[in-house]
Amino acid sequence: MANYDDLVDAISTVTDDCIIWEHGKFAEGYGAVAVDGKMRSTHRVALQLSKPAPVGKVCSVKGHWIPGHKLEAAHGPCHNRLCFNPRHLSWSTRAENNADRKRDGTHNDNEANGRCKLADVDVARIRSLWEGPHRGPDRTGPILRELAEQFDCSLSQISYIVNNQKRLAA
Question: How many whole angstroms separate alpha carbon 28 and alpha carbon 45?
């Protein structure tokens, strides 16, 4: 596995193209580099070397004060987890980073989450089965436990779905 010195040499390259880390990665797909005997994300180390994180508290978009050490190294337009080009990276809050990922379609919500057990079409079907019959006077539709059995998932998962809350990963 490549080390810190390899990273330092690579970020000295001036380019607008992605600089791809090819020497190892974490399970989530981000590049990994050894720094002082500990594994670190290459994009975070590269950004820290080129534009150190602000010291003290910084203001986020929503007006909340966030300590500089809690900021995330966010990828810019490339969205490549192995890219560590400082020109593609910036410091942002978790909320800002998640909003960017949702906007750009790189967030792993719902069906895009590899651990998701139910397809979006199944979630829509569960909600339609629950909404119709349970709102009328006869209440003849399936109960939560029956829906859980039908879709092979937990009772709590069905409860989250019918109450329009965030789905759980499997």
Answer: 17
Q: What is the pTM of this model?
A: 0.61
DSSP letters spanning 123-166:
HHHHHHHHHHHHHSSS--S--HHHHHHHTT--HHHHHHHHTTPP
Q: What ranges do the domains of the chain cover?
A: 4-107, 111-162
Q: Give the Cα separation of 151 and 109 in Å (integer).
A: 19
Q: CA-based Rg of the chain, rounded to a whole angstrom?
A: 22
Q: Do 154 and 147 touch, CB atoms closer than 8 A?
A: no
Classify the C-alpha dihedral 108-114-115-121 as positive or negative: positive
- 136 has pLDDT over 80: no
Residues ≥6 apart with Cβ < 8 Å to 92: 71, 72, 74, 100
| Contacts (Cβ under 8 Å, ≥6 apart) of 144 | 130, 155, 158, 159, 162
CA dist 162 and 160 (Å) reads 6
| Average pLDDT, integer, range 125-143 | 72
In angstroms, the CA 122 to CA 128 distance is: 10
